[in-house]
Amino acid sequence: MRRPVGKTSAPLYSYFALVADDPSVQVVSQAQTWYLKDILKNTQWKDVPLLSAAAPFKAGGRNGADYYTDVPVGDIAIKNVADLYLYPNTVRAVEITGAQVKEWLEMSAGIFNRIEPGKTDQALINTDFPSYNFDVIDGVTYRIDLSQPPKYDAKGGLANAGSNRIVDLMFDGKPIDPAGKFVVATNNYRAGGGGNFPDINASRIIYEAPDTNRDVIVRYIVSEGTINPSADGNWSFAPLPGTSVVFETGARAKDFIGEVKSLKIEPAGEGEAGFAKYRILL
Question: Are the C-beta atoms of 187 and 200 separated by less than 8 Å?
Answer without folding.
Answer: no
